[in-house]
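Lab channel / #folding
Pinned by the channel admin:
"Please post every new chain as: sequence first, then the structure tokens as a reply. Keep commentary short and put observations after the output so the thread stays searchable."

First post following the new format, from NK:
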Amino acid sequence: MESMKLLMTGFLTIYALQLHAQAIKLEKNNLEPVGVDMSIGSDMGKETIKVTKHPEITAVDQPTFVRINGIDFKNGTIEVKVLSKLAPDAPEHARGFIGIAFRISEDNSKFECIYLRPTNARAEDQLRRNHTLQYFSYPDYPYTRLRQETPEKYESYTDMAINEWIKIKIVIREARAQLFINESTQPCLIVNDLKHGADQSGAIGLWVDVGTEGYFSDVKVSE
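Reply from TO:
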């Protein structure tokens, strides 16, 4: 009986979040490019934000996002549709890196991030497939450190493709984050120990890395 009550509580919580999801208007007056170039337009019939990383920023896992101002996000759900293309001058190691930064501090010096490597998902190399999804925490925990110290813990696989729209949903509560891709009812990646802990809140960012032309649409946030 107790387990049934907990299950129903979970369903009601998810239902309440869905009911109160707020669509975010992607307009210039509430968007701030940080380490990226941004343009507002349309792609494949959708109103989109196009984002590309500044070429002079050569380090990876950096504050390279379009910051959505007017949001102080701590716990809740972030939903967005993303599409990534390899830029014409993309280096060989480019993977179509695209994702969401969250709990971004006021000065952009701290944030959490979950991103995708779409080209990895259908690679013939199984190891590359295992690195399709990635969590990192700026500034102290880039993917390189996490992969070295805790291999596979903060990465995972799910099917997706470059040049296709992908629905991302991230559910964050305290120090835990769950990533859902497309219509999956089960998380594809679970992070139980967000490195900045449970107390940080902040802005949300549309994040890209090297070699990516990133497109973002249909942003929704519930808290």
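NK: Confidence is low (pLDDT under 50) at residues 1-19.
TO: also worth noting, The chain has three helices and 15 strands.
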